[in-house]
Amino acid sequence: MMPLPETFDDTVRLDLHMHSTASDGALSPTELMQLCHARGLTHVALTDHDTIAGVAEAATEAERLGLRLLCASELSAQWRGVTIHVVALLPDGAQGALIEGLDAQARAREARSEEIARRLEAIGLDEALARAREQAGSDRPLGRPDFARALVAAGVVPDMASAFKKHLGAGKRGDVKAHWPWLSEIVGWIRDAGGVAVLAHPLRYGMTRRKRGLLLDDFVEAGGEAAELVSGFQNPDTTRDLSRQLQERGMFGSLGSDFHAPGGAVAPGSMSDTPRTTLLPVWRHPRLAGFAQ
Ligand code: AMP
Ligand code: MN
Ligand code: MN
Ligand code: MN
Q1: pTM above 0.90, yes or no
Q2: Is 85 close to ligand 1, i.e. is its CB under 6 Å away?
């Protein structure tokens, strides 16, 4: 297999942020690997929310296809009252404090689901937990998209977008974040596992540039080393500006589509081009040397 380039040039073969049925994605880990391969990707990471449960299955298929797969997860954290996502790139899998950390995240998701259900029942969606479970179609931990689908199925809202806009999005009744650990704690688990902590989609928290700078400062202070320079499709000027913010802090840059389901805005490997930058790509991080070959 061709090794990955030293810079962000020619990175269309890589996607370090995707979901499967182990969290809120539509494709099984096997199907996802097959789609990645069909789309010409060579290096990928499966980043299900707060779990690595899909990685073993994905690894079997990735090996069969000759695709390089990195064990990973997208962990939920809170920082100053905002839910922040951190992609853990885990060349050695789950180790040390992260093992108990992932267990704690699963329990947090369960308690949070019960709280979300109570809150949605208060607006008239009876048996909310059972309805969300039915939408999930398996016993995996539930997320807000399952509740959004339950609201649509019950006819409370016309579509997913309005479910989030009215009931589940940031600041709405069903946006329960109190269960997530602090950002610094999550980053600590990742470092303890020998992984690289990547701040996910820094442009999607609705923050001013200044606030994003404070987030990046705290993230780096906690041991975070990278951030997603490109997440799906974004404005090139904003990307250049983000690149400067990362460079000022000596961070690495990552890339990903945040793919969830076929037929959506993005497919595996589909994302904006990276503007010319001297930022180091995260696959050049010394701890990921084995992956980039
Ligand atoms: P959770 O991890 O349970 O907080 O759920 C967050 C997930 O909900 C995100 O990863 C997205 O997949 C999905 N999501 C967030 N906002 C929206 C939205 N406005 N419309 C559709 N899906 C969304
Ligand atoms: Mn998601
Ligand atoms: Mn996310
Ligand atoms: Mn994601």
Answers
A1: yes
A2: no
